[in-house]
Amino acid sequence: MELFLRLIKYIKPYKKELILALVCMLVFSVCNIAVMPLVSNLSSAVGARNFTSINILIGATLALFLIKGLFQYGQGYLASFIGQRVVTDMRVQVFKHLQDLSLDFYAKWKTGEIMSRTINDIANIQLAIVVIATEIIPQLLTLFGVLGYLLLLNWRLTAVALLITPVFVYTIDQFGRQMREIGRNAQKKVADISALLQETITGARIVKSFSMEAHEIKRFNTEAEHSFGWSMKEAQVDTTQRPIMGFLQVLAIVAVIWFGCFEVIAGRLNPSDLIAFFAGAFLLIDPIIVISKINTTIQKALASCERVFEVIDIAPSVREKSNAEELPPIRGSVEFNNVSFSYEPGEEVLSDINLKAEPGQTIALVGPSGAGKTTFINLIPRFYDPQKGNILIDGFDTKNVSLLSLRKQIGMVPQETVLFSGTIKDNIRYGKIDATDEEVISAAVAANAHGFITEFPSSYDTQVGERGSLLSGGQKQRIAIARAVLRDPAILILDEATSSLDTESERLIQDALQKLIKGRTTFVIAHRLSTVQNASRILVLKDGRIIEDGSHSELMEKDGMYKRLFEMQFKERTKEAKGTDQMQLLF
Length: 587
Ligand code: ADP
Prior knowledge:
Blueprint (H helix, E strand, L loop, with lengths): L1 H10 L3 H33 L3 H50 L2 H6 L2 H43 L1 H9 L1 H38 L1 H6 L3 H53 L5 H42 L21 E9 L5 E10 L4 E5 L6 H7 L8 E6 L2 E2 L5 H5 L2 E4 L10 H5 L8 H10 L3 H6 L17 H15 L3 E5 L7 H15 L3 E5 L3 H6 L2 E6 L2 E6 L1 H7 L2 H16 L6 H4 L1
Parallel strand pairs: 3-8, 3-9, 6-7, 7-8
Antiparallel strand pairs: 1-2, 1-4, 4-5, 9-10
The structure holds adenosine-5'-diphosphate (ADP).
């Protein structure tokens, strides 16, 4: 019931259309019911051999069906309109909500699962709304109208017809319960399949490099078979209920005929009304069949509703305060005060971090994999909120300012750049959506990307392919740098790529980054010696704690972990004579 009430909220904005649809349904049902007096009068007219009446009644019947058809159209059109509107609104709401949700949601939920809920489940709800409006309501109106008329004709005969109703209701309810349970599982299986499909498509390269195709096919087959199993269970319940309901109908009609004959013989019913009664009894069949069938659609839709509302009800873990103030243009000082953070309760990933970065400084973060470097930088734009302590930017607590005003002053160049399908220009413009073409080009020039872009036949209008698949890793990185240049942020966050690029690409990227870093407070997860040596400060992280903090020369003098690592890397470097270094590997 609660689900129903929630669903009705989505229909509310379309009250006008709903009222019009209800009027259409009402006329449609009245037309249905009017068949009975027509039949009764027709049989009387036949008895009286009154040809004029017969002609008029036949004409009236034709007119009735014409009107019925017209209003059926109106009702169908309006119901679809409402159903499609609700679905569109719901999808947009879910999408908006997905944009609001924090990164922890995306870490926990499988992409395919989210997609299945947004696409398949919402489609189920739409189907139910259309079916309710086009079938259930008019059929219910017909059901009550016909029953009312039958009561007027002969209440005792109607009572006989109704005696069987509780059996109907009980049977429908039982089937409905089963269908809901099975529907929930069947939907879940569809979501599992989407999730698997999504994983293997995005991970196609990994699947191939490990020759895991057969393994993946086996996994998919298992999931597909599970889905088949549940779909068959669904079909079984659905097909069992038809003959059972059909038999119950026959039982009701036979009982009516049998008892009706006695009523006529006893003189309590005239024969033409008995014929109208039969017509009425047959008119009841459709509503009963439709209602019993629709129950399953509704049960399935309710299961889908639950799944959609479950997503809608997840609150974003990072939320803006209702009285959040705008962060004014910043100079770029960043302060961590006793910051501790954990993803899971009790498992601290960052412990008691204290730091003050002055505007324009470059802070390099080094440390072994899993030390907490990514987590550290993710706290600055508030992708996550620390459980203890606070982070101040130019003295403003990040928790008190609006997310938009905070994030638009922070630029990020990630390790793996994600490009969106579209042109190179669109992708660079992601840094500043209203940038002019000239601004885009000068950002690309600064990012050393202009050269390779203009070599493409379509230049800036080149399509990058899905997730930028048509560009090389180095090219994608330079696009990411161009985005950051365009954004012109006071704070910059860099996550250096660990994978080695060819020397030329590497040089171009390093050069572009040096230009980008100038004048900005930069946090960099550093894997390259040059970056670390040139940083104003180096933080060595281990198990979520800063174990060393200072400039390259200061840390070298300290004779601690950093010095050991640096020397090891230096040896490694001369040994391998590689253009790039992977500091991370040495910890
Ligand atoms: P680094 O960047 O130094 O390799 P991370 O900040 O990525 O380290 O990870 C620090 C720790 O937090 C690791 O133990 C990692 O397993 C854990 N971790 C990272 N992301 C999540 C997450 N979304 N949920 C739970 N634990 C996480």
